[in-house]
From TrEMBL:
Keywords: Signal, Transport. Residues 1-21 form the signal peptide. The lineage of its organism: Bacteria, Bacillati, Bacillota, Bacilli, Bacillales. InterPro entries: Bact_solute-bd_prot1, SBP. It comes from the Bacteria. The keyword Cytoplasm does not apply. This is ABC transporter substrate-binding protein. Belongs to the bacterial solute-binding protein 1 family. It comes from Paenibacillus glucanolyticus.
Length: 450
């Protein structure tokens, strides 16, 4: 293993020995019969690790179950085992442990960048390039960049997403509020909401990635979305004044009481409940959250009363800059190539999952924007839901887009920033000191890759 590759892998795979012990024996094993069973009807099994956990992901799970059924029917002897794991636990603990042991599941939920890049460099992920060419779908995706490394494709995005603000339309109408065109106008709305005894922004910060959606979008407005690309190369620094200004704006919102007290103890679902209950009026989240607000079982009387708009720029008329991402999807173990039957199963899974039908079903039922190329008219005709129309409009208004920061920096830096933003929210550190700490970790991570 090359020194650089080892450094990257060890950085990403920093897990406890207990985790490695627990996960090391759960990966895919080589078939005992070699390649002789390629045309056999003998039972065999593959595991699909997914993160469709909880009420808010029930539609996506139903779609996955249908794909699993179609795949099992098409491959004699195949039994697919579904392994459901929380997204953060899968990414930061379980999958890393399995990769360190060299035994990931045959199919697994994975982030394209940087995770799939690190795993693929160590020969742990299946090269999908020839499979996509064989199936004739290689050029049908909006982008495969997060999963493409050294010209080869190592995973497929399940959809794309943007981040912006969901809001209570009825409340806005009753109070004479309109969608803001600048951050200053957004703050004026927040002040009015606070004065009315309600919470301006629903927020849950027990998992740091949730408040970091707000932080990431703010620093991208103040410093420009290009700044995040430069952290890993050393061309830019976390301590750059404009980055500080953007993150300090988030700190200012915390100090002004725009979020509910105790946010560090709230889970992701709590944030959605704050706006559904009417306790909060706005919420920064990914476009995927629309499925919650369109489901009577989850949103109740708030169905049809939630709208969406992009976080506005600092100055009116400035470019609208929005996180737009295709970084979450499925990867496949390199060991699959050693067993023709498992390879056939993977091909069938891809063939059944990435179709226009499934992409449009994901859009209609789960509100996930298609990862495969699709014109706006088709999307509009698929869903006439007002909230989805708002999101489609949000996509059309984007002048500049960028991937989420954790696709552009090393795992250690992600960890440092995650800890740091929680310390800022908790009042333990100010923005300046926190970013000094993150920059030190950034420089150490950069040096380790030289």
């Amino acid at each position: 293993m090359k020194k650089k590759g080892l450094a990257l892998l060890m950085s990403l795979l920093f897990v406890s020995s207990a985790l490695l012990s627990a996960c090391g024996d759960k990966g895919a094993e080589k078939p005992s019969g070699g390649t002789e069973g390629a045309a056999s009807n003998e039972p065999f099994e593959i595991t699909i690790r997914h993160t469709q956990v909880g009420e808010s992901k029930k539609f996506r799970l139903a779609l996955l179950n249908d794909v699993v059924s179609k795949t099992e029917e098409a491959v004699p002897g195949l039994k697919i085992k579904l392994d459901a794991v929380d997204s953060e636990v899968n990414r930061k603990e379980k999958l890393r442990g399995e990769m360190a042991a060299g035994k990931p599941p045959e199919v697994f939920d994975v982030f394209g960048s940087p995770d799939a890049g690190v795993y693929s460099k160590e020969g742990l992920m299946l090269d999908l390039t020839p499979i996509l060419e064989e199936l004739g779908i290689k050029d049908k995706f909006s982008t495969l960049d997060p999963f493409t490394h050294e010209g080869k494709i190592y995973g497929l995005p399940i959809g794309i997403s943007i981040e912006g603000i969901f809001y209570n339309k009825d409340y806005f109408e009753q109070k004479g509020l309109t969608v803001p065109k600048t951050l200053a106008q957004l703050e004026q709305i927040a002040e009015a909401i606070k004065a009315d005894g309600k919470i301006p922004f629903a927020q849950s910060s027990k998992d740091a990635w949730i408040p970091l959606m707000t932080t990431n979008n703010l620093w991208s407005y103040y410093a420009g979305p290009e700044v995040t690309y430069g952290f890993k190369t050393g061309e830019t620094k976390w301590t750059d004044p404009k980055v500080v200004e953007g993150i300090k704006k988030h700190e200012e919102w915390v100090e002004k009481g725009y979020f509910k007290k105790g946010e560090l103890g709230f889970e992701y679902a709590d944030m959605r409940n704050q706006i559904i209950s009417g306790e909060a009026v706005m919420m920064m989240d990914g476009s995927w959250a629309n499925s919650v607000f369109r489901d009577p079982a989850q949103a109740g009387d708030m169905v049809g009363k939630i709208g969406y708009f992009n976080l506005p720029p600092v100055n009116e008329g400035d470019p609208v800059i929005v996180m737009q991402d295709a970084n979450n999807g499925y990867g496949f173990s390199a060991s699959v190539a050693e067993d023709p039957r498992k390879l056939q199963a993977v091909k069938e899974f891809i063939k059944n999952m990435w179709t226009d039908e499934m992409q449009l079903r994901g859009l209609k039922e789960d509100g996930v924007l298609p990862a495969m190329k699709m014109d706006l008219a088709t999307m509009n005709s698929t869903s006439d839901d007002p909230l989805m129309q708002d999101i489609f409009r949000g996509v059309s208004e984007i002048n500049k887009s960028f991937p989420a920061f954790d696709a552009l920096v090393q795992a250690d830096v992600n960890t440092a920033l995650s800890m740091g933003i929680q310390q800022v929210i908790g009042g333990e550190l100010n923005t300046e000191k926190m970013l000094e700490n993150v920059q030190a970790v950034q420089e150490a991570a950069n040096a380790a890759e030289e």
